[in-house]
């Protein structure tokens, strides 16, 4: 043996060649960004899936029925006059709004001969 190895054995310090020195992990800025991104991607995907599917309505076997009657517009008749005719006791603004919504009208202008759906709650 060499004198260095014998001196180390005599003092109780042995150098082992099979043990690697302890290495501490250093995480760089780029490594933190990558690690954070890898952790965040499943969370973002889960949130998107929940947002897309979470608000969906559950279909039932029941059919919602809306009943209404049709009225033919006379020459010179306005939507306001029609609303007063079909529902004299109701608030005319509400009747006009319901008729516009039901018929998907873009304006309150009517054409003679036009068929307008009236909710049955207002029809006689």
Topology at a glance:
Elements: H1 3-10, H2 29-54, E1 68-72, H3 79-86, H4 92-103, E2 115-119
Antiparallel strand pairs: 1-2
Helix pairs in contact: 3-4
Task: Describe the protein's architecture and organization.
- The protein has 124 residues and is mainly alpha-helical.
- It is built from four helices and two strands; from the N terminus they run ααβααβ.
- The protein has a two-stranded antiparallel sheet.
- Helix 3 (79-86) packs across helix 4.
- The chain is rod-shaped.
Strand residue percentage: 5-15%
Helix content estimate: 40-55%
Mean of pLDDT: 80
Major sheet, described briefly?
A: 2 strands, antiparallel
The geometry reads as rod-shaped
DSSP, total strands: 2
Structural class: mainly alpha
Task: State the order of secondary-structure elements, H for helix, E for strand.
Answer: HHEHHE
Q: Which parts are unreliable, with pLDDT below 50 for 5 consecutive residues or more? A: none
Strand order of the largest sheet: 1-2
Q: Terminal Cα separation, in Å?
A: 119 Å
Radius of gyration over all CA atoms, rounded: 41 Å
Please, how many helices? 4
Question: Key features?
Answer:
two-stranded antiparallel sheet, 2 strands, mainly alpha, single chain, 4 helices
In short:
This protein is mainly alpha-helical. The protein has 4 helices and 2 strands; from the N terminus they run ααβααβ.
